[in-house]
Amino acid sequence: MRDWAGKRYWLLGADTGLGADLARTLSRAGVELVLSGKDQGALEDLMVTLPGRSSYIPLDVTFCDKLDGVAIELGAVDGMVYALDTQLPLRLADWNVAAANRMFAENLGGISNALSVALPAFQTKGEGHVVLLDSIAGLDGVSGGLGYGAAKAGVRVLAESLFAEGRPHGLSVQLVTLGLPSGLFSPTPAQAAAGIFEHMGTDRFRRTVPPLAGALMRVLRLLPIWLARPLVARLTKGAQD
């Protein structure tokens, strides 16, 4: 189990429902938090509800022109949790380049920008902890999931690559696969936050929240594609509507 006493974490996406629930969970465990998100008012409102020490850095992490200043303001941290999870409906017949690019930028590109700040801080300390979120939408393509699934698949591969290289550098990397935001296996923000925090306290690389979603998707991937596709479509119907 990870010892949370005296730890300081940078939580990106703290202005979202999931990020706020995760902030409260981490703060109750004794973690000092640096909260980031685009909505400064939401960050300020969240801060006053947290039982532990916290500060905030308003930030649109999809832009990289102010990251040097962010690094100075952030200072030393023990870990980084990237809790942005943007899903917009997108179908082939109604392709929307703005929606697609936003999902790519917020779900995947922003991680690169955040890492450019966090990794040098971890290298200075000689250790660090990175927690990323992907989705079962990134494990197998689903109708209506254009953009979102592709971005989340990228997150998964990025996390796997960081994990493969990180240990010799003192970097602990973890990945949490969430059920679809609006599908049959959709966790509430509170459920997702509880699952993420529980996983963060372990030494394991990957966990699915809820666990049943991951188990079922693994079974479906063993089936012939002609049989698996209709089942996946039914299970993810809420995400397609």
Structure description:
It is a single chain. 47% of the residues lie in helices and 17% in strands. The protein is an alpha/beta fold and 241 residues long. A 7-stranded parallel beta sheet has the order 3-2-1-4-5-6-7, with helices on both faces. It starts with 7 loop residues before the first strand and ends with a helix. The protein has a single domain (8-240), classed as Rossmann fold (3-Layer(aba) Sandwich). The mean pLDDT is 87. The chain is built from 9 helices and 7 strands, in the order βαβαβαβαβαβαβααα. It has helices at residues 17-28, 40-47, 67-74, 97-125, 148-166, 189-200, 211-220, 225-235, 237-240; strands at 8-12, 32-37, 54-58, 79-82, 128-135, 171-178, 206-209.
Keywords:
alpha/beta, seven-stranded parallel β-sheet
Which structural class should the secondary elements be placed in? alpha/beta
CATH class: Alpha Beta
Q: Kindly identify the CATH topology.
A: Rossmann fold
Radius of gyration: 18 Å
Short description:
The protein is of the alpha/beta class.
Q: Could you outline the blueprint of secondary structure elements for this entry?
A:
Blueprint lengths: L7 E5 L4 H12 L3 E6 L2 H8 L6 E5 L8 H8 L4 E4 L14 H29 L2 E8 L12 H19 L4 E8 L10 H12 L5 E4 L1 H10 L4 H11 L1 H4 L1
Parallel strand pairs: 1-2, 1-4, 2-3, 4-5, 5-6, 6-7
Helix pairs in contact: 1-6, 3-4, 4-5
